[in-house]
Specification:
The chain is an alpha/beta fold and 164 residues long. It is 42% helix and 20% strand. It is built from 6 helices and 6 strands, in the order E-H-E-E-H-H-E-H-E-H-E-H. A 6-stranded mixed sheet has the order 1-6-5-4-2-3. Helix 5 links the parallel strand 5 and strand 6. Helix 1 packs parallel to helix 6 and helix 3 packs parallel to helix 4. The longest helix is centred in the first third of the chain and has 19 residues.
């Protein structure tokens, strides 16, 4: 869609369950957009059930750590009653930043599925080793990936104003 979102991780087709959960993350991103936040959304699933969800709230909370992933992680650890999220998958619309990747590592999230890469601020720009060694990652392809990219591109274009 736009070379801003190039990555070294090969996009892959998602299972129907993964696609459904990515659509829920997209709904969270839409909520962020409605609130004037950077449109990133996340859900955490365990055994196919959503146990945490969130969207960016950095402006609303005046908190630079209030990223979608952090909000969803907090909800998920509360739901499970512990700090580890072994057996859980995080679905997020954009590649996590280094801060969120570090938190995902500490939480021992088993799998991360993201909609589009972020070569400017994503963790892979700095070091893929931020994640827990047992964490696997998947990059969505097709319609879901395009929608995640479109939300981000449109948001930042609207902030910059019309092109000259």
């Amino acid at each position: 869609m736009d070379d801003f979102f190039d990555t070294t991780l090969t996009p892959s087709a998602l299972s129907s369950q993964d696609a459904s959960l990515m659509r829920q993350a997209l709904r969270e991103a839409s909520l962020a957009l409605e609130e004037g936040e950077v449109p990133i959304g996340a859900v955490v699933s365990w055994k196919g059930k959503v146990i945490g969800r969130g969207h960016n709230m950095t402006e609303r909370l005046h908190d630079p750590t209030a990223h979608a992933e952090m909000i969803a992680l907090t909800a998920a650890t509360e739901a499970l009653g512990g700090k580890y999220l072994q057996g859980c998958t995080l679905y997020v619309t954009v590649e996590p930043c280094p801060m969120c990747a570090g938190a995902l590592s500490w939480a021992q999230v088993e799998r991360i599925v993201y909609g589009c890469p972020d070569p400017r601020r994503g963790y892979t720009r700095f070091t893929p080793s931020l994640l827990h060694p047992k964490t696997s990652t998947a990059l969505a392809s097709g319609e879901i990936s395009e929608e995640c990219s479109r939300l981000m591109l449109e948001f930042f274009r609207s902030k910059r104003g019309p092109s000259k």
